[in-house]
Specification:
The complex is a heterodimer of chains A (98) and B (482). With 98 residues, chain A is mainly α. Helices cover 34% and strands 4% of the residues of chain A. In chain A, strands 1-2 form a two-stranded antiparallel ribbon. The relative contact order of chain A is 0.08. Chain B is built from 15 helices and eleven strands. In chain B, helix 4 links the parallel strand 2 and strand 3. Chain B has a domain of 228 residues: Amidase signature (AS) domain (Amidase signature (AS) enzymes). Chain B is an alpha/beta fold and 482 residues long. Classes of the chains: A mainly alpha (98), B alpha/beta (482). At the A-B interface, helix 1 and helix 2 of A face helix 9, helix 10, helix 11, helix 12 and helix 13 of B.
């Protein structure tokens, strides 16, 4: 599996990560090596195999609690770890020009 | 006071009842050891003295009033720093959450405190529990108590070293692909990955949601049984927490294991297994035979595909779980945040270390348009085959016994340059994680160099009782000294 630095740049943008040129080079190599390794999965014929997305067994399958209001945070608690709270909100750089 | 290193839950209970020490004295001793030794060992990221002393005083007050005390009363307990502790820092060993103070308690934390345990500190780990050596901590590494130039394993290295190194008799860790069992094996502690869903993950910072577990560490199997019994059970705050009844694991513990069939999967004893480890594990199997167990050779034919399947699934899940660290609500925000997009990208770049970044990139790639079926779906199909291997094996055997890791603890820095090599070291633990079954590591002696070796006991979903009985019988028969 050949991976290009441009692909890594694109993936990093999708994941909202700023990468340096050195990082891109490094992760291009790593990604290529790991994807070559995982290629061995194609040795297995899996048509007709139901993908296993979650461990479901008796006792946890499809258990949903009733939809009732439970405990929650007050505004102050929810904001206490925010890097920039203000006026009861999370502040972010301006996204709309006046 | 008795050496903290020697204490178990039972001996603490006896000591408190006989007034040989108070819960406060014990908490103070655990805090003193944590403070004094941490510079060399790196076990703790933070200590929680106020919380510890308040919990200890509650136990002392109950004792003074002649009231019934909880099953973990006065027992110092260390908590991996990926588990939320209200009012205390919960950093996940990441710069992203360096200053994060948890606004609520994990269900497991609530339950251990209700049982009287005294939380003394938050333990070091790999950043967001991603790693096999604890070297991915953003702050400092942990040293193996058995050999300070070696890693304690990971990702729950601090919780394993806390128990093995005599900081606390019991601790909580998390296991996604072996993060409890492998460090337990490297440090010489007991460590359990319960059945998926056995223990609520509410308050466990999510890494890979279909694989994450909270579980116990201890020095004896009985203490792990007690701790597991305390934290297990349904939880309205975690829909994956199973409603299956929780047995009295510790109360029903027995060393009577005669007649149990134990599967010995040939794929776990072949190429790659270091001979010093293999010899110890083989001797462990012989010890179980001498106790009346019947070893049977079995095959788990898809074992060699487990790492590839796991690293696609866990990174895919991690890339979505870690999207929440946006620099807005609770994680680190970059100083250079001119625009919203810059803020996201710079904050995340500054927050995450290289292994976390690597996994986010891999996970984003395998979920991205055009690759989903080829990688993510394929990995899930192979996961189903691995789970089927186990289901078929458990039709004929009661438990499966294997090594935990192909080699003992390695030197700090020895494997950091090659991520794939590091991933390959998880081969024997990842299979059980993918299948969602129960697994534990029990000490089974040391290599000629004096490095601890762990024996892995795997049982089917919710068959923890059989697993614990085997571990207990093994321990009682001297298997830990091996």
């Amino acid at each position: 599996m050949k991976i290009t630095p441009e692909e890594v740049q694109h993936i990093a943008a999708l994941a909202n990560l700023r990468l340096s040129a050195a990082d891109i080079e490094r992760y291009t190599q790593d990604l290529e090596e790991i994807l070559s390794y995982v290629d061995q999965l194609n040795e297995l014929e899996t048509s007709g195999v139901e993908p296993m997305a979650q461990v479901l067994h008796e006792g946890n399958a499809g258990q949903l609690r009733t939809d009732e209001r439970g405990r929650s945070f007050d505004q102050q608690t929810a904001l206490q770890c925010a890097p920039l709270p203000g006026e009861g909100h999370f502040k972010v750089p301006r996204v709309i020009e006046r | 006071m008795d050496e903290l290193k020697q204490l178990t839950v039972d001996s603490i209970r006896a000591g408190l009842r006989a007034k040989r020490f108070s819960a406060r004295e014990l908490a103070q001793e655990a805090l003193r050891v944590g403070e004094a030794e941490n510079g060399g060992s790196g076990v703790y990221l933070s200590l929680t003295p106020e919380r510890a002393l308040a919990a200890a005083d509650r136990v002392d007050a109950e004792l003074a009033a002649g009231e019934e005390i909880g099953p973990l009363a006065g027992v110092p307990l260390a908590v991996k720093d990926v588990i939320m502790t209200r009012g205390e820092k919960t950093t996940c060993a990441s710069r992203a959450l360096e200053h994060f103070v948890a606004p609520y308690d994990a269900t497991a934390v609530e339950r251990v405190e209700r049982a009287g345990a005294v939380i003394v500190g938050k333990t070091n780990c790999d950043e967001f529990a991603m790693g096999s050596s604890n070297e991915n901590s953003a702050f400092f590494p942990v040293r193996n108590p058995a050999a300070p130039d070696r890693v304690p394993g990971g990702s729950s290295g601090g919780s394993a070293a806390a128990v093995a190194g005599g900081y606390a008799p019991i601790s909580l860790g998390s296991d996604t692909g072996g993060s409890i069992r492998q460090p337990a094996s490297f440090c010489g502690a007991v460590g359990i990955m319960p059945t998926y869903g056995r223990v609520s993950r509410y308050g466990l910072v999510a890494f890979a949601s279909s694989l994450d577990h909270i579980g116990p560490f201890s020095r004896t199997v009985k203490d792990s049984a007690l701790l597991l019994g305390t934290i297990a059970g349904p939880d309205p705050l975690d829909s994956t927490a199973a409603s299956a009844p929780v047995p009295d694991y510790a109360g029903e513990l027995t060393a009577q294991v005669r007649g149990l069939k134990i599967g010995i999967p040939k794929e776990y004893y072949g190429e790659g297994l270091e001979s010093a480890v293999g010899a110890k594990v083989q001797a462990g199997v012989e010890l179980l035979r001498s106790l009346g167990c019947e070893p049977v050779e079995i095959s788990l034919p898809h074992t060699r595909y487990a790492i590839a399947s796991y690293y696609l699934i866990c990174t895919a899940e991690a890339s979505s779980n870690l999207a929440r660290y946006d620099g807005v609500r609770y994680s680190r925000r970059s100083e250079s945040s001119g625009t919203l997009r810059d803020m996201y990208r710079n904050s995340r770049a500054e927050a995450f270390g290289p292994e976390v970044t690597r996994r986010i990139i891999l996970g984003t790639y395998v979920l991205s348009s055009g690759y989903y079926d080829a990688y993510y779906r394929k990995a899930q199909e192979v996961r189903a085959l691995i789970a089927r291997d186990f289901a078929e094996a458990f039709e004929t055997v009661d438990a499966i016994v294997t090594p935990v890791s192909p080699f003992p603890a390695f030197k700090l820095g020895e494997k950091t340059s090659d991520p794939l090599q590091m991933y390959l070291s998880d081969i024997y633990t990842i299979t059980g994680s993918l299948a969602g079954i129960a697994g534990m590591s029990v000490p089974c002696g040391e290599t000629p160099e004096g490095l601890p070796v762990g024996l892995q006991i795997l049982t089917n979903h919710f068959q923890e009782k059989t697993m614990l009985n085997l571990g207990h019988a093994f321990e009682q028969a001297g298997g830990f000294e091996g």
